[in-house]
Amino acid sequence: MSKRIVAILIAAALLIFAILTQSIGLVMSDSFSESRSNMLAGDETPKEKVVERGSAQKRIARISVEGTILSGQGTNPFNDAGYNHERLLDQLEAIKKDNTIKGVLLYVNSPGGGVFESAQIHKELLELKEAGKKLYVSMGSMAASGGYYISTPADQIYASKQTLTGSLGVIMQSVNYKELANEYGVKFNTIKSGEFKDIMSPTSEMTQEDRDILQSLVDDSYQDFVNVIKNGRDMSESKVKDLADGRIYSGKQALDNGLIDELGFEEDALSALKEEIGGDPQVFEFKPRNPYMFGLPFNVKSFLPNSEVKWIQEMIQDRQGPTMMYLYTD
């Protein structure tokens, strides 16, 4: 038996394990989920790393959102890098409870992501501000769509002239391969309980009624986006809607349109936040967590060739159906 076949067999077994791990978390009770999480991941408390010394009673937490904002990636043993939604929520919760943390510097380098996940982060950031924390955002090369959505609660938003932001709005996409299937003689049998149960199916044509239903969902989420900009930027709804037509803006254009407050880089945002807090605040960030299995370090990538890892990772990420996204797409 060749090494490649062995690798694929191992990969298949691990894929099944990954799917079961995520599925159990969805159907079990909260208490069992917590126990399972502790067993699989070890100590879940975010660990800190001081990056600038200063007063331990007046601290600044530096957190980042880099990559596509989607949940479930933190439970994927094939993806131990990049954005981790569950980890970010844990960090925000820890910051909220820590009275020594007076300010938060949020670095955003993201094209956006899920409507649900963006709303979760936005809610947590509002609660940080209600707890008396100052919130500054520094945008990286891109902070578009959901990346901008989560930036709106900030006291100050910084971006460089070269930053791409905007893409304010909602998108829902799917692929329809019915004609391609027909060309090759492939037929699909669908048994459903209601007329719209297979709405947006890739194997059937979209009707006008289907489109109207989906458009109403997109419109509702779009209005939510408009509201967070209106409230966060103290901007009229009519002006927000003029800006929120899906186009992208440079950092300079965003400043001219009132979508950001200052042109600058992360060090500029941090310097301004320190000045507002006053004194000599300590700056820290959270250490990245390694995947654990029963309290022991675990990394699936070490067992598999890169091609198999990439293939399985894509299968895990792409197995869900079409969803609404605050996402900039090419």
From TrEMBL:
InterPro entries: ClpP (IPR001907), ClpP/crotonase-like_dom_sf (IPR029045), Pept_S49_SppA (IPR004635), Peptidase_S49 (IPR002142), S49_SppA_C (IPR047272). Residues 128-276 form the Peptidase S49 domain. GO terms for molecular function: ATP-dependent peptidase activity; serine-type endopeptidase activity. It comes from the Bacteria. Keywords: Hydrolase, Protease, Serine protease. One of its GO terms (biological process) is proteolysis. Belongs to the peptidase S49 family. This is Signal peptide peptidase SppA.
